[in-house]
Every structure is written in C-alpha cells, then in structure tokens.
Amino acid sequence: MTTTHSLGQAARQILIQNDKGCYTIPTKGLYPYQWNWDSAIAALGFAEFDITRAWIELETLFSGQWSDGMVPHILFHQPDPGYFPGPDVWGCDGPIPSSGIIQPPIAASMARRVWEKDTGAGATHLTALYPKMLAWHRWIMQWRLDRGAVCTTHPWETGRDNAPDWDKTMARMDASDVGEYTRRDTTHVNSDDRPTNFDYDRYIKLVQLGRNLHWDQAALREQSPFRVADPTMTFTTLGAARDLLAMGTELGFDTTGLTEDIKTLEAGAATLWNTDLGAFDSRDVLSGEWAGCVSSASYLCWLGGIDSDQMMDRLRNTLETVPYPVPSNDPDSDTFDARRYWRGPTWAVVNMLIGLGLEQQGHHAEATELARKTGALISEHGFAEYFDPLSGSPAGGKSFTWTAAVWLAWAGRT
Ligand code: 9WN
Fold first, then answer.
1. What end-to-end distance do the CA atoms of the chain give, in Å?
2. Distance between CA atoms of residues 317 and 294, nearest Å
3. Mannosylglycerate hydrolase MGH1-like glycoside hydrolase domain location, by residue (predicted)?
4. How many CB atoms are located within 10 Å of the residue 8 CB?
5. What is the CA radius of gyration of the chain?
6. Does 35 sit in the ligand 1 pocket, CB within 6 Å?
7. Crossing angle (nearest 10°) for helices 51-63 and 107-117
8. Cα–ligand 1 centroid distance for 120 (angstroms)
C-alpha cells in the first residue's frame, strides 16, 4: 500500500531528480529548461524540505529578468535539442537566453508563502527579490492592460496553451507562411494528448512576429492579431499585487501605486464577467468577442481576492459531478476533450491555485474538499503532468515537478 509518507518521499525525489542545481526542469525530455510559473511552484515544494533551495529557485528565475522588468516564460540555461522552439527561434537578448513572453505572474504570491515557511534568512532573500518582483508587476501594468484586465499576447503566456478560449482568435489568424519546422513535443508524448498542428503553426507564427518586432511591446500592441484579456493573467496579477502590497508594507518598501493598481485590476476583473455564460471568461480585445469558456482559470477569482456566489455554485457542482475535478474545460461544452491538454484535463497545479485562493477567502470546506480530491487523484494515478477528469488516468509528462510540489505543499497535507 502506498502511504502518505512514501508519496511524500517520492515527491521529494522528483524535485531532487529534476533539480539542475539552481533551477528545476518541469520534467525530463519534454521540458528541459526553466519555466516561469513551474519554477514558482517548485519553490513552494522545496520550501517543505529545503528552504534555501526554495529561495535559489526564485532567485535564478529573476536572474533572467530583462532590464525593462519583464521576466521570461522560459530561461534556456543550457542548449537542449529536445525542445522546440529553442533560443535561436525566439531571438531574445536578455541576460540569459530566453523566450520573449511571460507566464502567469504567481512568483510574488509563492515568494510570500515561502517566506511564511522560513524562520531564518527569509527576510534577507525577500528584501533582495522584492524590487525585482515589483518591477515585473509594473511592466505588466504598463504593457498589458485592457480596461484594467490583463491581456495575453500568446496562448503560451497563460500556461493554458490550447484552451478553447483562444479558438476564435486563432481561427482568424493566417499562418500559411509560417514555414517548415519540426515539433519535438510529440516525440516525447502521445500526439492525441497535445495541441494540434493548426494551433502550433499559430504559436510559432506569433513567435516569429514578436521576434521581427524585437519584442517591442508598443509595436506588438499595434500589430499582433492576438490580444486576449484572460482570467489567468488577470487573477494571478491581482493576487500578486495584493501580496506585493502586504510584503512591501511589512518589509518597509515604498508601495506607492499598488493600492491604485489593485483597484484598476479589480475593475478589470469585473470586465471578464460574461453575464450570458454566468462565469469569468476570456475576451478578445481586438474583436470584442467573448470566448464563451468556463475554464479552470475562471475559478482563480478567489486567488485574485474576488468572491463570487455564482462561481462558488459552479465549483460545488463541479466537485460533486466531475469524478476528478477541476476540469480545464466545462465537460458540457462542445469543445471538451478529456485528454487533449488544456481542453478538458485536470491539472493539479491549477487545483492548488484555486484551493489557495479559496482558503484565503475563508472558503475552508471547499478548499479542503478540493485538496482531498486532488490528493486522491495523485495517490491513485501518480505525479503526472495532467489527468483525464472523467477516468483519472494520467497523461503527458511523467514525474512532473509541479505535481510533486503540489503534493508536498498542499494536496498531501489533507
Ligand atoms: C509552452 C512547462 C509548461 C507549462 C505550461 C504548459 C506547457 C509549454 C509547451 O508546459 O507549455 O510553454 O511547450 O507545451 O502548457 O503551462 O508551464 O511545464
């Protein structure tokens, strides 16, 4: 019988095996570099047994910060032909070879939690990190707002690559001149569980556009066909702003502007409420069209400090009716696909972010229930990248860093 203790040991082993010294890869083979939000989650996992290593993870992430404050979604510390697109395709010139886009800015919120677990040198680490985290927040506020909501300029930025949220926007894009390239992801895992070639052409087309514009945000805002105000970016930015305000106040930093930012982002979050759908939704900024999607990101409202009775009713229903919640796409939707990446599968990492938000907002019963269900899913089906929400079967990469970290920091503790 697998005990909680032995699962804890296995989870630590995964973090240790995926540890490259000062950063952690998400999984061997499929993802051989440092990813931004994966790294923030890894730090939380390390904080359970090696607090110094937790800080190092975050410090390495911010060592890749660009001079304008942007923190890239991938840091290519060492070349690896197993992943495409690599640094040569992105054409960026930050301090470390990197991609030119961001990912959900959860690092500040995770740093605050690491700090809470640190009885020693935490304040010293955090004091050094704080101005960098604030600079990234300011970059987002400067470049990515639409009516106060935070926009994504590439599906990869949200971490929800092929979510149906982007379908209408992607369908309008012409990628006929993208040229020849070879996908590497499908050499590691089952192609039926991955984004389609139609989507990949558009992912690469957007990378080519960014590169041609030298990742100039003003030019991208003018010229990119992809600009979507999204719950992932908005709620994580809002949660981070609140955490930056709290940490800055406690550490004695100048927090001028953060209270205003929080108000702006709260107003932005309200613009993501789709009344017809009855849920937080994504909104194409260029066409003004709703995506019409209830995704797992819709439930990140609590992480952003926003309460919603309607989202709570939905969550309770999902917890009762979906065998392995929370699905990344509504099972009643025509676009639902139980295996294909972000079009249905359950991601333990998103569950934890939803759960931490619920806990923060005082919804203890639902937070505990979600943690218990996520723990059961991992103990029955392992530390997979993601899971079929109907059968629980594991999919994608194995021995996955963030699933192990989720077990250590949250799901294995119930
Ligand atoms: C592109 C690393 C990342 C996660 C994302 C997930 C997937 C990359 C890919 O893997 O995205 O960034 O190549 O598919 O969608 O959430 O951070 O685990």
1. 18
2. 13
3. 31-403
4. 17
5. 20
6. yes
7. 160
8. 33
- Give catalytic status of residue 161 as yes or no: yes
pTM exceeding 0.90: yes
Length of the chain: 414
- Best mutation site among 73, 153, 161 for ligand 1, i.e. most ligand atoms within 8 A of its Cβ? 161
Q: How many angstroms separate the CA atoms of 407 and 11, rounded?
A: 7
Instruction: Name the amino acid, one letter, at 175.
Output: A
Question: Quick one: which H or E segment has residue 229?
Answer: strand 228-229
Pocket test for ligand 1, best of 18, 25, 31 (most atoms within 8 A of CB): 31
Model confidence pLDDT, tens digit, residues 328-363 = 999 999 999 999 999 999 999 999 999 999 999 999
Which tens digits make up the pLDDT trace of 64-106? 999 999 999 999 999 999 999 999 999 999 999 999 999 999 9
Output the six-digit token pair for 85: 């697109």
Alpha helices, DSSP H only, in 22-121? Answer: 36-46, 51-63, 87-90, 107-117
Residue given tokens 């998103």 in the structure block = 350
DSSP, residue by residue, 237-278: HHHHHHHHHHHHHHHT---TTHHHHHHHHHHHHHTTEETTTT
- Residue 360 to residue 405: CA distance in whole angstroms: 19
pLDDT above 70 coverage of the chain, percent: 100
Query: Counting Cβ atoms within 10 Å, is residue 399 exposed (0-12), middle (13-18) or buried (19+)?
Result: buried
Q: What residues does 24 pair with on adjacent strands?
A: 19
Beta-bridged to residue 387, according to DSSP, are 346, 394
